[in-house]
Amino acid sequence: MHIIKVDYIVVGQGLVGTWLSHELIKKNKSVIVMNHSIKDTSSKKAAGLYSPITGRKMVKTWRADDFFQSLENEYQELELLLKERFLYPKPIYRPFKSVADQNDWQGRQTEKGYSRYIDDIISDSLEINNILDFYGGVIIRNTGYVNLPVLLSAYKKYLIDKEIYLEELFDISEMQQNGNEITYKQWKAKKVLFCEGPFPTKLWEKLPFRPVRGETIDISCELDTNYIINSGVFIVPKNGFFTVGSTFDHQVLTFRPQHLGISNIKDRLSKIFAGDYCIVNKQAGVRPATHDRRPYIGFHENFQTIGIFNGFGSKGVSLSPYFARHFANVLENGDELEKEVNVERVY
C-alpha cells in the first residue's frame, strides 16, 4: 500500500472544519479533509447570524471586542478566495419592550463597552409595516448573517479542486498511533483533528457536550425592511423570504422540526409581527454546545497526536475564524492555548 504523508487530517467539513483547514492551508501545511456528506448537519441548518450583542437580555457577547473587529473582513477574504458570495452584513433592529427598556439602552449608548456597536437609538416607532415597535428601538451594527450552505459547498469545491478532499466516514478503528505520528489507512499525519459537530466519535465520550435542538421557519409575508428584526425571535430577510427563529431544546435531539417548537416560534412571532404570513419551510438543527458554553479545543488526554476543534454552539459564525487562527498558531508556532477554551479544563 502506498503511504501518503500529510501534516494534518481534518475530520469534518462543517463550519469549524472549514475554518481550521483554511488556516492550516494558509500556513502552507499539507492537509487532507475527510468528510461524510449528509443532508442534516448543524452547519447546514444554522441561520448563520452574527452579532456582538445577543441573548434574551441583549448583552455584549463573550469577548466581542476580540472577535468582531475583523470578522467581516475574514469572511470577505474567504469570499474572494472561493469566488462566491455568502456574507450578508445587515444591521439588527431590536424594538424596545417598554419605556424602562428604552431608558436602559439610552444609558448603554454612553458605555464604552457598548457604544461602538450601537448605531442609533430610536425613540419612536420606525413604522416598518406590521412590526410592533411602540417604544422605538436600538439599531446594532457589526451584524448580519452568513449563508452557510453556500459557503460550505464553495469550500468543498475548492478542496476538491486542490485534490485534498476525501468523501468518507472516518473510522477510528482504522487509526493507529505510531510514535509522534498517526496512521489512518494509507495516510500518515502529524495529527488528526476532529471537527465533527454535535455527535462526536467515542474518542471524546468524556466531554460533557450539551447538544441543543433549534427550529427555524421560512415565511412569506408583507414586510419591507433590510433590517434583521430581533425581539423574542429573529426575523432575517433572505432570498425574498424571511427566516424566523429560534428554539432551544436539550431533550429531543433530532433534525426534524417538532410541532411544539414551531408553535413556540409562531407564538413569539405574534408579539412582534402583526401581519399575515405563510410558512414555506421548516427546519431543525442540533447545535454542538458544551457544558460551559465554551468550545472544546486542544488534544486528547492520552494522545497529543489527536486533537479536537468543536463545541461552538450557536456562536460558530463569530467564534470559528478567530479560534481557527489561534489553534493553527498553537499547532504550528507553539502558541499557548487559551485556558477558557482548552479542553484540558474538563480533564
Lay out the secondary structure.
Elements: E1 4-11, H1 15-26, E2 31-35, H2 42-45, E3 49-50, E4 53-54, E5 59-60, H3 64-67, H4 71-82, E6 87-89, E7 92-95, H5 99-108, H6 112-115, E8 118-122, E9 137-140, E10 144-146, H7 148-161, E11 165-167, E12 175-178, E13 181-184, E14 187-194, E15 212-221, E16 228-231, E17 233-238, E18 241-245, H8 259-270, E19 277-287, E20 296-299, E21 306-310, H9 316-333
Parallel strand pairs: 1-2, 1-14, 2-11, 7-16, 14-21
Antiparallel strand pairs: 3-10, 4-5, 6-10, 7-9, 8-9, 12-13, 13-14, 15-18, 15-19, 16-17, 17-18, 20-21
Helix pairs in contact: 1-9
Please provide a written account of the structure:
Helices cover 26% and strands 29% of the residues. With 347 residues, the chain is an alpha+beta fold. Strands 1, 2, 11, 12, 13, 14, 20 and 21 form an 8-stranded mixed β-sheet that branches. The chain has an 8-stranded mixed β-sheet with strand order 8-9-7-16-17-18-15-19, with helices on both faces. A 3-stranded antiparallel β-sheet has the order 3-10-6, with helices on one face. The longest helix has 18 residues, at 316-333.
Radius of gyration (CA) equals 21 Å
Order of SSEs: EHEHEEEHHEEHHEEEHEEEEEEEEHEEEH
Strand percentage lies at 25-35%
> Which ranges are low-confidence, i.e. pLDDT below 50, for 5 or more consecutive residues?
none
- Overall 3D geometry? elongated
Derived structural class: alpha+beta
The tally of helices reads 9
Number of strands: 21
Helix fraction? 25-40%
Give the end-to-end Cα distance, rounded to a whole number of Å: 38 Å
| Biggest sheet statistics | 8 strands, mixed
Q: What is the averaged pLDDT score?
A: 93
